[in-house]
Amino acid sequence: MRVVILFGSEMGTAETVADSVADALCAHDVSVYDLGDFAVDDLDVHDFHVIVCSTYGDGDLPTGAEPFFDELAAAAPDLTGLSFAVFGLGDSIYGDTFNRGGEIAAERLIECGASQIGEHARHDASTEIRAGDMARDWAATLPIPALASA
Fold first, then answer.
1. Which long-range contacts (CB under 8 A, 24 or more apart) does 135-138 make?
2. How confident is the prediction along the chain (150 residues), in pLDDT tens digits per residue?
3. pTM, 2 dp
4. Does residue 79 contact residue 32 with C-beta atoms inside 8 Å?
5. How far is it, in rounded angstroms, from Cα 143 to Cα 59?
6. Distance between first and last Cα of the chain
7. Is residue 83 helix, strand or coil?
8. At residue 109, what are phi and psi to the nearest 5 degrees?
């Protein structure tokens, strides 16, 4: 099973975190893409998808990720059988909108029939925990049976 890591970033942190996740899963066939360069038609139910998404503004998706999720909403493809995990990035000083970008990404995929697995990780920029370190630890815990035998 191929692992496709898709990131949405406003300032580059999600891209760096996506690379950390790729490093943690390097024993597998891993590809990393910017959501701005990935089409909804490229989603493959045979791949496992990891979404790494920051939160921008007042709880919005990053600018570069908006076209992908707008296309997903418009096309509303049947993603039954597609499994994904989410690593969200945010800052708890924003209260109710903390980590909302990753939550929106998960909601939109689930609306199309995809299944979220594992813990929805939520990094808080207000802590001393480095996002890349947290992402590597999180990726190592993803409950993906097909990856264990890959």
1. 135/17, 135/20, 135/21, 135/24, 135/52, 135/87, 136/20, 136/21, 136/23, 136/24, 138/21, 138/87
2. 799 999 999 989 999 999 999 999 998 899 999 999 999 999 999 999 999 999 998 899 999 999 999 999 999 999 999 999 999 999 999 999 999 999 999 999 999 999 999 999 999 999 999 999 999 999 999 976 554 444
3. 0.93
4. no
5. 28
6. 7
7. strand
8. -70, -40
